[in-house]
């Protein structure tokens, strides 16, 4: 198997914190290379992210990588967070632009993730390994696929060491994207982001917003299985495990799982890959 990593979101309530701890306790059995924690643009989950990263890194002894997004923040706020993450002992950052919640005023000092990568490199040298986002099915705001690839390349030229993709269910989109990136001279590892399927209705809504395509045949099969929870889980895990197998056979260097702080859907996929 290739190395794996898990992504969590920062819990806000005691109940959510306990759930994250239970999930981590189960998933760490799969020996992740690192775990990451998402960041809410505009400050709302700012302190939750750093607190969760501290907990994962120092209390639970995992290598924790904070996501850091630059929209809505000032250079000073970003500098403070980087200082904090250094003090906590982090060696890896997932650097993003983020999305401003609609109606939020100030766009922030940095416009694109490439500027954030440049800032981290300029001020912290090689202290952090920097991962950036990549979009095999094209970022929804990109002018077109080629412009999106150029912007991805700019993040690597600014100093990113690797990329994690938006999730997708079409392996060919990933392989084509990697081929295009290599032809464009981008040689960093491009790790597929894997979204195990737990709540299909929620996934469909989420996918529309972030530009990920759910193949029609998956939707149709899910619909046919209806309320048969066991059959839906079985099918979902088979589909995602099949995708992972294809990706690894085709050369994916690692797999990054979007866990949504749930253990079962990710576990079901990983057991099938063992
Ligand atoms: P960028 O790379 O800056 O690109 C954003 C858009 O601008 C793209 O369409 C790109 O083509 C375009 N662009 C880039 N540079 C230029 C330029 N110079 N001129 C014109 N156009 C340009 N969001 C969060 O809020 N918190 C998280 O924790 C989080 N984690 C994520 C983790 C992963 C692995 C991924 C794939 C996404 C994550 N996101 C997160 C979502 C991400 O923030 C959004 O997709 C956001 O819209 C784009 O972020 P980016 O870093 O890809 O932006």
TrEMBL record:
Any one Gene Ontology BP term: methionine biosynthetic process
EC number assigned by the record: 1.5.1.54
Transmembrane segments: none
Highest taxon of source: Bacteria
Cofactor: FAD
InterPro entries, alphabetized: FAD-linked_oxidoreductase-like (IPR029041), Mehydrof_redctse-like (IPR003171), MTHF_reductase_bac (IPR004620)
Recorded metabolic or biological pathway in which this protein acts: Amino-acid biosynthesis; L-methionine biosynthesis via de novo pathway; One-carbon metabolism; tetrahydrofolate interconversion
UniProt keyword Oxidoreductase present: yes
GO cellular component: cytosol
CDD domains: MTHFR
GO molecular function terms noted in the UniProt entry: FAD binding; methylenetetrahydrofolate reductase (NADH) activity
UniProt-listed NCBIfam families: fadh2
Family indicated by similarity: Belongs to the methylenetetrahydrofolate reductase family.
Protein known as: Methylenetetrahydrofolate reductase
